[in-house]
Structure formats: C-alpha cells, structure tokens
Amino acid sequence: MEQTLSIIKPDGVSQGLIGEVIKRFEANGIRIAAMKMLQMTKKQAQGFYAVHKERPFFESLTDFMTSGPVVAMVLEGENVIEKNRTLMGATNFKEAEEGTIRRDFATDIEKNVVHGSDSPETAAFEISYFFNQFEIIK
Ligand code: RTP
Ligand code: MG
Q1: Of ligand 1's atoms, which has the minimum distance to the CA of residue 57?
Q2: Do residues 118 and 132 touch, judged by C-beta distance below 8 A?
Q3: Which pTM does this prediction carry?
Q4: Which atom of ligand 1 is found nearest the CA of 112?
Q5: Which UniProt keywords apply (predicted)?
Q6: Which residues are the active-site residues?
Q7: 16 within 8 A of 87, measured Cβ to Cβ
Q8: pLDDT confidence of residue 110
Q9: Ligand 1 atom closest to residue 51's alpha carbon, by position in its atom list
Q10: Secondary structure of 99-130 as H, E, C letters
Q11: What is the pLDDT of residue 87?
C-alpha cells in the first residue's frame, strides 16, 4: 500500500486545525500509520526543504516552518500521494479548488496549512526524515 508524508504546518496547528485535517484524511479512506508533534530546528527544516534551497522563498519558508509546532504523519492508502495532494489543493490557496484544505484555511502562499510529498521518491525520503521503521504501524 502506498505511503506519503503529511505535515500540518505551524499555521495549521495554531489555527486549531489538527482535528479538521485528520478528519478529512480519515473521511477519505486514508489511514494514519504514524503521527508525532514536534518543533523543527532551522537545520532540520533546511534539510527537509533542501530541494528548494536556491529558491527566493527558502529563508522565509524555513523560518516559518520552525516558528511553532507541526504535526507529522505517515498516511497510507491506495494512490495516497495524489489523493493527499488533491485534498490539500494548489500551493497558492487562491488557485486551490473549493473544498480543499488550502482553499478553506490557508491565509498566504506560504502559510498554507499542510505539506504533502509530491512523488514516491520524495515520500520515501520525507517519511524516513521523521520516522523510523518501529514508529510506522502496519
Ligand atoms: P509543500 O511542499 O509544502 O507540500 O507545498 P507544495 O508542494 O504545494 O509547494 P512547493 O513548491 O513544494 O513549495 C513549498 C512551500 O513553500 C512555500 N512557498 N512559498 N513565497 C512563495 O512564492 C512560495 N512558494 C512556495 C509554501 O509554503 C509551499 O507550500
Ligand atoms: Mg512541495
């Protein structure tokens, strides 16, 4: 079964959206296989978003992602990488479909509530970045 990494970003946690986001995952047949709350260090955020290190928003993004606690989850289900991306909506909430998490709750292109892996390769890297094999429930 496919797995992906989801993160409820600091703005999602501070807006009180942990339950709302998890409710949407479960209502759509996605299983939570692992979950933890943590506050990332700057180094941890830089490593996580290393693919974006040349982007103009890298500094701001890594500051934002370390600004408060996040909830990291391993999601499991059929086609879950794409399914999660669909539930999240477009990066820019103004372009996101109605009924998506970002359209409903994002406040800014950066403060867009959730992260989701975008391919099987990034999912494998991102899951192992936060979870070891004993923390992922079969
Ligand atoms: P994510 O990685 O967080 O799931 O989001 P994504 O794939 O939809 O977007 P991506 O291009 O990977 O960008 C990562 C995060 O960086 C912030 N961002 N800011 N200021 C900007 O123009 C800008 N562009 C992206 C967002 O928080 C985005 O989710
Ligand atoms: Mg991305």
Answers
A1: 20
A2: no
A3: 0.97
A4: 27
A5: ATP-binding, Cytoplasm, Kinase, Magnesium, Metal-binding, Nucleotide metabolism, Nucleotide-binding, Phosphoprotein, Transferase
A6: 115
A7: no
A8: 98
A9: 12
A10: CCHHHHHCCCCCCCCEEECCCHHHHHHHHHHH
A11: 98
Q: Are the CB atoms for 105 and 8 separated by under 8 Å?
A: no
Nearest CA to ligand 1 atom 19: 110
Which residue's CA is minimally distant from atom 1 of ligand 1?
115
Which ligand is located closest to the Cα atom of residue 60?
Answer: 1
The average confidence (pLDDT) of the chain is 98
State which residues of the chain have pLDDT below 50. none
pLDDT at 7: 98
Task: Select from 106, 93, 113 the least CA-distant residue to 18.
Answer: 113
The domains located in the chain, with CATH, are 2-38+70-130 (3.30.70.141)
Structure token digits, residue 63: 């500051």
Determine which residue's CA is closest to atom 17 belonging to ligand 1: 110
Q: Report ipTM for this prediction.
A: 0.94
**6 Cβ partners below 8 Å, 6+ apart?**
21, 25, 72, 73, 74, 75, 84, 114, 115, 116
